[in-house]
Design goal:
elongated; five-stranded mixed beta sheet; 3 helices; 5 strands; alpha+beta; binds nickel (II) ion
Length: 136
């Protein structure tokens, strides 16, 4: 049997302000518009964690989704949920919290924890209309 992909979806809410310190205030306003508003704004994010591997003949699972949920919650979502991404999250320190930057940092945290299956893809929804994907 070949490999199978299993996906778990998790949600969290967080505030952020898009602001790149290397740019001037005018450049930031021009580039990020309302997303650069000084006091920030919030999103209801959804993260889809896709894991790929062989089906364990003993369990019939690629990965135990309860365990996967626990790992992602403990190591990632708990640090993001109801936080301000500009100030409250150690692994985003000094980083402009775009969805792209957030998904790349999230990969670095999760990738070593998903064993013996492997992390195939992260899809991070920032709004109903926008998502970013990262495959390492
Ligand atoms: Ni935003």
């Amino acid at each position: 049997m070949g490999e199978v992909t299993v996906t778990r979806r998790l949600t969290f809410s967080a505030a952020h302000r898009l602001h790149e310190p290397a740019l001037t205030d005018d450049e930031n306003r021009e580039l990020f518009g309302l997303c650069n508003s000084p006091y920030g704004h919030g999103h209801n994010y959804a993260l889809e964690v896709a894991v790929r591997g062989r089906v364990d003949p003993r369990t019939g699972y690629v990965v135990d989704l309860k365990q996967l949920k626990e790992i992602v919650n403990t190591h990632l979502v708990a640090h993001l949920d109801h936080r301000n991404l500009n100030f409250d999250v150690e692994f985003l320190d000094g980083i402009n919290p775009t969805t792209e930057n957030l998904v790349v940092r999230s990969w670095a945290i999760l990738e070593p924890l998903i064993q013996p299956a492997r992390l195939l893809r992260l899809r991070l929804w920032e709004t109903e209309n926008n998502y970013v994907e990262y495959e390492g």
